[in-house]
């Protein structure tokens, strides 16, 4: 795989106040030899972490009005994560399956390089099954390194079918934060 990346600001000009610009204002372009692969007969992505751009995710998973509504909330969450310095997120749940009307999306995010003070407090509210996250962003948000169940971080947990224990794929989105 080869990647080509560009940023909206030059290397010598850091963003205002030391914070990165909003996700939607970047002219981030990643070109990859492969696209998000097709679904398995079970309706999942094949095992592995499939790197995609926002545009690829929108096109592939925004196939109906309900899914586009979920994408709107996802984009808002990505803006918040980007402002906090997050570099990569992983998308999972029924949203990245062949299910036509998924109830929400599941997302975990890498903490390395982040400043949690820039995150919306809703990211830390796990009461009532993360109801406030679902209400505001249409999905559930977890740190990738947080324990999902004994022996599994959310990053690992997302890659296993809860019913069968079989491996399945997830989608990674690079948010374009440079070190």
In a few lines, what is going on in this structure?
This protein has about 180 residues and is of the alpha/beta class. It has 4 helices and 7 strands, in the order E-H-H-E-E-H-E-E-E-H-E.
What count of helical segments does DSSP give? Answer: 4
Largest beta-sheet details: 5 strands, mixed
Oligomeric state of the chains present here: single chain
Q: Which structural category fits the helices and strands? A: alpha/beta
Total count of strands: 7
β-sheet strand percentage: 15-25%
Q: What's the rounded overall pLDDT mean?
A: 83
Report the uncertain regions: 1-33
Strand order of the largest sheet: 1-7-2-3-4
Overview of this protein structure:
The protein has 179 residues and is an alpha/beta fold. It has one domain (16-174). Helices cover 23% and strands 17% of the residues. The chain has 4 helices and 7 strands, in the order E-H-H-E-E-H-E-E-E-H-E. Strands 1-7-2-3-4 form a 5-stranded mixed β-sheet. A hairpin with a 2-residue loop joins strand 5 (147-149) and strand 6. The chain is globular and about 40 Å long. The protein starts with 47 loop residues before the first strand and ends in a 5-residue tail after the last strand.
């Amino acid at each position: 795989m080869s990647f080509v990346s560009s940023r909206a600001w030059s290397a010598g000009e850091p963003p205002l106040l030391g914070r990165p610009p909003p996700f939607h204002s970047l002219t981030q372009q990643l070109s990859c030899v492969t696209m998000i692969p097709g679904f398995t007969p079970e309706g999942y992505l094949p095992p592995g972490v499939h790197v995609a751009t926002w545009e690829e995710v929108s096109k592939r998973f925004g196939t109906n009005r309900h899914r586009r509504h979920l994408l709107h909330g996802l984009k808002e969450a990505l803006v918040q994560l980007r402002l906090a310095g997050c570099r990569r997120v992983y998308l999972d749940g029924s949203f990245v399956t062949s299910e036509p009307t998924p109830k929400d999306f599941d997302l975990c995010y890498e903490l390395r390089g982040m400043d949690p003070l820039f995150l919306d407090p809703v990211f830390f509210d796990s009461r009532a099954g993360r109801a406030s996250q679902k209400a505001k962003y249409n999905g559930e948000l977890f740190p990738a390194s947080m324990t999902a169940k004994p022996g599994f971080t959310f990053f690992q947990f997302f890659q296993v079918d809860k019913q069968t224990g079989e491996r399945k794929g997830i989608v990674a989105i690079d948010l374009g934060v440079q070190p």
